[in-house]
Structure to design on (340 residues):
């Protein structure tokens, strides 16, 4: 008998009374293609879609542009000619059709790139300072504001920051439960998550990495609803003491939940694992769960290859998937979302 995949959607009403909605997802198989970014060193570390271009950084820290229309790849920055030193680029986010920012997790720096004619050139760079650092996920909110999650943040689930004149935190959104026996780094790891700002509803969707839950917040900070996942688990971890410090340690029972989240005009897409590390070695497949903007389960895509990041693009009606593999011929998996 086929096992039903059931999600519980918790809707926060005015009186905070729970209203649970359950529904099995419809399994769909949309048309898929592969983008071949020529002459790059796989795998891709991060990517963004900017005005009919896929901007990506490969394993050799080459910053690349792939033109969706002409299918041509060119280097914006080569590892040998880089005016900036990428160490571990984590996120690329488009501020406008002519401006994007690269975030480097190790150096905690923003590197701006600006379009000049048909070329991209380096703009400003900014060093980030605590508590605005350790950002696994960043999503643009407006021309100067962004939403981000942090591995070291204990003040709120989401950081709302601004880029200019220098990157600073404007406010925090969402409550984080703190344990007095654990330091801020443990708290940050427990609450590790990815986020996406939805310009069509002015909401922020958050996918939790170690707990089976997706949250929706208004830009004003109100929690609108929570979506509980199919396996119903909380973070499983150990705290290791190192001298006077504490370190977050995965256990054999630690599971990954929602790895990446993105949206287009119609839907929210959440990439889900639900597996331990040992289970992932045997089975690399993941599921992309698709919700409407009210958190109601709609469809799911079973992905039988190992992907680690998804980005939806409204203009090309496509879902771009970061493909974890060393074959440069199959680096970015693309699903057609037009008829979903």
């Amino acid at each position: 008998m086929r096992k039903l995949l059931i999600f519980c959607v918790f809707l926060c009403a005015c009186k905070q009374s729970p209203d649970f909605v359950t529904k099995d997802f419809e399994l769909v198989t949309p048309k898929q293609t592969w983008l071949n970014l020529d002459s790059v060193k796989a795998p891709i570390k991060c990517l963004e879609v900017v005005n009919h271009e896929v901007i990506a950084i490969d394993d050799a820290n080459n910053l690349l542009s792939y033109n969706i229309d002409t299918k041509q790849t060119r280097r914006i920055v080569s590892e040998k000619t880089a005016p900036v030193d990428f160490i571990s680029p984590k996120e690329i986010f488009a501020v406008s059709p002519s401006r994007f920012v690269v975030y480097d997790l190790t150096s905690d720096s923003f590197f701006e790139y600006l379009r000049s004619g048909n070329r991209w050139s380096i703009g400003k760079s900014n060093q980030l300072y605590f508590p605005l650092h350790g950002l696994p996920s960043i999503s643009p909110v407006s021309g100067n504001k962004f939403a981000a999650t942090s591995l070291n943040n204990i003040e709120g689930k989401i950081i709302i920051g601004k880029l200019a004149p220098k990157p600073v935190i404007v406010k925090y959104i969402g409550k984080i439960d703190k344990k007095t026996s654990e330091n801020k780094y443990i708290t940050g790891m427990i609450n590790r998550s990815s986020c996406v700002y939805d310009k069509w509803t002015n909401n922020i969707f958050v996918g939790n990495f170690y707990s089976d839950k997706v949250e929706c917040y208004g830009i004003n900070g109100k929690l609108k609803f929570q979506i509980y996942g199919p396996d119903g688990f909380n973070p499983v971890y150990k705290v290791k003491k190192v001298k006077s410090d504490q370190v977050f340690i995965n256990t054999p029972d630690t599971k990954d939940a929602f790895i990446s989240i993105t949206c287009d005009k119609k839907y929210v897409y959440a990439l889900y694992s639900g597996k331990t590390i040992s289970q992932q070695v045997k089975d690399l497949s993941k599921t992309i769960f698709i919700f409407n903007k009210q958190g109601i389960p709609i469809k799911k895509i079973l992905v039988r290859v190992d992907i680690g990041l998804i980005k939806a693009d409204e203009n090309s009606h496509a879902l771009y998937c970061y493909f974890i593999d060393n074959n440069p011929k199959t680096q970015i998996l693309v699903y057609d979302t037009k008829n979903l």
Remarks:
- The first strand starts at residue 6 and ends at 11.
- Helices lie at 184-190, 277-282.
- The radius of gyration is 19 Å.
- The first helix runs from residue 184 to 190.
